[in-house]
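User: Show me sequence and structure for the first protein, then do the same for the second.

Assistant: Starting with the first protein.
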Amino acid sequence: MTKQSNKTNPSGFRTLAALIPFLKPYKKQFILASFSLVLAASATLAVPFSFRQIIDLGFNADSGNQINTTFLILFMVACLVALGTSLRFYMVSWLGEKITTDIRAAVYSHVIKQSPEFFESTHSGEILSRLNTDTVLIQTLIGTSVSMAIRNMLLLAGGLVMMFITSPKLSVLIFATLLLTIIPTVIMGRRVRKLSRNSQDKIAHASALAGEKLNAIPTIQSFTNEKIEINRFNQYIKTALDAAITRTRARALLTFVAILFGFTSIILVLWLGAYAVMDKQITAGELSQFILYAVIVAGAIAGISEVIGDTQRAIGASDRLLELLSVQSSIQDLSIVKSAPKVNAAGIGVEIQNLSFHYPSNQNNVLSDVSLEIQPGEKVAIVGPSGAGKTTLFQLLLRFYDPTSGEILFNDINIRDLQLEALRKMIGVVPQDIVIFSDNAMENIRFGRMDATDEEVLSAARLAIADEFICKLPEGYQSFLGDRGIRLSGGQKQRIAIARVLLKNPALLLLDEATSALDAESELLVQRALEAAMESRTTLVIAHRLSTVKKADKIFVIENGKIVETGTHADLILRSGLYSRLAKLQFTDQ
């Protein structure tokens, strides 16, 4: 996987160019926005010329017709300015909203497909910050800043040209003085961009902390660490505030320098222009025209300097979003994939050959040279102490990671040769840590198969003995279960998860301590449901409870990432090995 870089892209234009693919679907709207922008800028540039006509011709006209015509032309120009400006505002705002939505969708759809390796080094809170805060900055860039920048550049260029046509001598002077504005603006703009990126990173860190802690409120309160967490969060947001103030100070200084230098140069030139009128070198109308163009140029310079700050922030935001889009998952489909193996009435066969694995963040092997074979329909238990590699084996079967060496075969087909979606559709998992979504009970179970009917959901709930407590909820299956299922007990969460996987009806069932949070009565009921669910499918169980392990067709005992014993419950008890010792410590009837 490509690691994320904290370095700011040295070329802001290159960063903005990377956003062009998001503009391509809206070519017509972009053309219309560009047309309206040019129309508004052109009409604005025509205003000073109209005022010159009024001063030099209209006020000196002998008849009212000349005055009427002159002011009518000015009114028509005003109408074009209003039409062009309003159309530009609507179109660029529309483009900003649409493109921001597309970027959010692209980033989310890209991130959600990443392997767990990506999330080992990336906080979900930081991703949310990029999805929300950074995309808002890009929306401001596309919906406001870009159009304002182009508009002001057109006004600047057009104003300078018209100033040169009106008075070449005065214009040469103003061109020279404008260099005093452009050079410091460019230099200071680079610093603003770096500070903007730093500020956005600090905000993302604060969001990541808040997201993590809000998901652990009961733990925080049980240890009475509320004040500590409040202080920690306050420190994070103070750091973000300091970075934001530094950025704002730099941006304010940039604006001050740009406006002061710009207006100083124009005032200097206009001072000389006043003497030119006194010497009859230009007319009063021409000077008025030159003054108005100078005002337009000054306003354009001020507008560009203001836009530069927004642009630099948006470039920093774009860098961060493009980093996410550039990350490639280490788990990819091959260019040519094989068809999913056919599942017979008994389930699917699983073979693991010389499997070794270590996590990317830790070079120590979690599994070493593991080999085992499971026949279709077999019920296999995996037993071992904590940290032995049991859950890791499940993650490899789901291809959340690829093994360092060795192979995993489903019906003699290497799972790397299968399409990821097809592979994972064959597998159902009931994990130890159950995820309950902020939705009602019906939709939480339907997550197992999104196209399932209500009756199929109800049937799965009954089989998992979840129907009993769901019907007692205030609104039954339509009851909201709270954030992360806070309204449910641990056992109720597990029955929801079991119902979810039963609805999926997979060929391979993985149970990771599926009954660990149940009381004795609930465990008995759910165990009966699981026994029915195990029919006609291969099942792997991670469990310590004797009721589950006793009935397994085969038990693999893992210690330090290696299989140290294999056999049935009765066989392993007699060997006086690790399994026997674990049984004496953990199994309730020993």
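Switching to the second protein now.
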Amino acid sequence: MEKKQFQAESKRLLEMMINSIYSQKEVFLRELISNASDAIDKIYYRALTDDSLTFNKDSYYIKIDADNENRTLRISDTGIGMTKEELETNLGIIAKSGSLAFKRENEIKDGHDIIGQFGVGFYAAFMVSDVVTVVSKALGSDQAYKWESEGTEGYTIEPAVKDSVGTDIILKIKENTEEEQYDEYLEEYRLKEIIKKYSDFIRYPIKMDITQRSLKEGSENEYDEYKEEQTINSMVPIWKKNKSELTDEDYANFYTEKHYGFDKPLKHIHISVDGTIRYNAILFIPENIPFDYYSKEYEKGLELYSNGVLIMNKCADLLPDYFSFVKGMVDSEDLSLNISREMLQHDRQLKLIAKNINKKIKSELKILLKNSREKYEEFFKSFGRQLKFGVYNDFGANKETLQDLLMFYSSNEKKLVTLDEYVSRMPEDQKFIYYAAGESVERIEKLPQVELVADKGYEILYFTEEIDEFAIKMLMNYQEKEFKSVSSGDLGIEEETNDKDEETSKENQELFAAMKDVLAGRVKDVRASKRLKSHPVCLASEGDISIEMEKILNAMPDSQNIKADKVLEINPSHEVFQSLKKAFNSDKDKLNLYTNLLYNQALLIEGLPVQDPVEFTNDICKVMI
């Protein structure tokens, strides 16, 4: 019998597991029971497409047997079993290539997340066992096989005898140490406690032979002991229990048991509907964003059950994309058991459930915003970007649904605020909702364009994410107040223009025309600025594409070199303006130099690249000489 070695990476992961990668060793039983339940589910899935199989739920169960004398714990199931090749593949190779690299890259210190995310919970058995033996007979196979391992040194696979289809996992429980009492994993009451804690909602019976006592015949104080098989778990799904019976801990445990996430749920939503269509749902808003959320690998969707039987692991049709972060399940008695994925897409009842769930999620998020502001802001920092994408996508079809859930950083409040809060504080003379876009709050605060709006005392929303301005362009207005960028050509702030201002503008028309010629093709116009106070120059934009949008669009793959219509604005009250006038009247070369310098300066302020850095540095040197 050949002893095979674990792959190097698998061996290291197994060493981590043996050294208690989980914070609580008791979870090994939860993992093994979950695997057993999955094995039974696989027979159910097979029966859906194989007419030769019938699935009688009463015939399937999980059995736990503890043998104190031999220090063994056996977990048996009547599931689909494993072939020799499946034992090799599933148990001989732990996780996937690259999982350790993932752990390092994400600085996972306790290792818990990597284990759950890569599906190697079976190896939790080594936390409490010296030897793990798996005897399995696959559905449709005449031969059973035994897989056995003492840990990191490797494993063996050989033929075995097993009468029935299914899998037996036999753990040789470790001896007690000063730090850990392993005997507890052989004690009936402790095993029952762990099963009830972690696996009470498993759909199949989890059976144990429980010690019973009966009074001896003719005796008053002597008892006979005997074993009686009992089902330990309630098998009553949490979603079918009354809400009043459940605690926050019950929901949190369900979230963990179903592997919806490796964080704690920020909020749970329990829905029970008994009307035109009957369904129960438990939804969770996660606390943290999944590591793969913005990748192609992420799958949205809720588990879909029909009367407690799983139809689909991830039913994407139940959630809109903008609520794709929601986890949970839906159970309806009105859905057909043999319903197919194609039929689901057109099922009227399913669409009605999805519509109701969508409304409920929005309603609960608004309640969270109103009653638990800190929690909502925590949620928004994780998933606010997805809500903004929802506003932008589908040509703004969902903007009415999502606009009240949006938040942006406020120049006045120095924190996230809603659009409703912004509008409620607007002075009577303020016509627009003002915003400024940039890479960070710190950079936006230094933009010359914010001066005039800020001096008027108007609140400015800071857009620091790429999607922000695109979403607002799609939103267009809120409560009949139009959005206006501080960099737009017309701020809409009415100021009295005295004769001196008009005279200054007329006097310098030729100067601005000359500067525009110097910057031919780079700007649409050059003009005196009414927004600048202390800064000499800035760029404004006209049209639908802003300067910030230009940066974002051109940073994308296969960009079309999109350009905003830029206007170079000069502050006529700044000393630099006098130098421009002097150069225009006496030294055209110096005017060209100053114009290019000011233009490049404005580009740098906006975070745009200078087209010719060498020329720019040479121009600076010319000024210094």
